[in-house]
Design goal:
- With 272 residues, this protein is of the alpha/beta class.
- The protein has a single domain, classed as Rossmann fold, CATH 3.40.50.720.
- Helix content is 41%, strand content 15%.
- Strands 3-2-1-4-5-6-7-8 form an eight-stranded mixed beta sheet, with helices on both faces.
- The longest helix has 28 residues.
- The protein is globular.
């Protein structure tokens, strides 16, 4: 594969922040002067193809390439098939963006899942499967001349900010039991906190391999994450997905290299 293109693999890229990141990458050529080759993954090959069709309709590719693929992050065979596919077609990957995740607190609230099911599924995807996926792609990432590994996190994963009562999600509910559901996202935020440690372990493991590792909090966006209605999210202050996508692009392009290994947000960094 030509070295004149930067190969970016994004999990969960057919919608939400992942799709917005693809849009951001295609807005302008890479600062390096290289073109982008973006591998879009989704649980459904049909959704990946639909995402590419939207991009072809709405965006100018400017010599870039978007490649739709199928990936069930929680299925080892699916991961192995994708590794083989990428190896045969490209021989390397320059940037891996671990974006796919499970946010199950709203289905839990609505009685569609038990607490155990919500916790197990969130940790399986957001921590275990993300770790194994990264491990599977490590040989292809290390084949890059300038490898970057990105983990999408969340500001509400911060232990340091957990007691900050200026943040509405941290306000304690009224006394008594059982607690009335207000805005409780315990399974999501605890799995993301665990994911931060997993990402830091990758940073430690790859310290002498030349891989730059980043964690990004894109902020609360109107992406429909967890089943939240985007229109309602916007009314309550959520940002546009493309803004998060542009933040991820800036990290991919090296604009935030001084913040390697910490939790990055648009306005700076977030305490652990």
């Amino acid at each position: 594969m030509s070295t004149d293109t930067t190969i970016v693999l994004i999990t969960g890229a057919a919608a939400g922040l992942g799709f917005a990141t693809v849009q951001a990458l295609l807005e302008s050529p890479a600062k390096s002067g290289k073109s982008w080759t973006v591998i879009i993954t989704s649980r459904s090959a049909e959704k990946s193809n639909e995402a590419v069709q939207v991009l072809l309709k709405d965006a100018k590719l400017n010599g870039c390439e978007v490649v739709p693929t199928e990936l069930d992050l929680d299925n080892d065979d699916s991961v192995e098939r994708l590794v083989k596919q990428v190896k045969e077609k490209f021989g390397r990957v320059d940037v891996v963006v671990n974006n796919a995740c499970q946010h199950l607190d709203f289905p839990l609230r609505d009685g569609k899942l038990t607490t155990r099911e919500a916790f197990n599924r969130a940790f399986n995807t957001n921590v275990t499967s993300t770790h194994l996926f990264t491990q599977a792609f490590m040989p292809l990432l290390l084949a890059s001349a300038s490898p970057r590994l990105v983990f999408i996190s969340s500001g509400i994963s911060s232990l340091g900010a957990h007691s900050d009562m200026r943040i509405p999600i941290n306000l304690p509910p009224s006394a008594g039991w059982p607690k009335q559901w207000t805005f409780n996202v315990t399974t999501y935020r605890t799995s993301k906190t665990a994911g931060n440690m997993m990402a830091l372990e990758w940073a430690r493991l790859l310290k002498n391999d030349g891989v730059k590792v980043f964690l990004i909090d894109p902020g609360r966006l109107a992406t429909g994450l967890g089943g939240e209605d985007p229109a309602s999210a916007r009314k309550s202050g959520a940002g546009e997905p493309i803004d998060g996508g542009r933040l991820v692009k800036s990290v991919i392009e090296g604009d935030r290299d001084e913040d390697e290994g910490v939790l990055i947000t648009k306005g700076g960094v977030i305490p652990w």
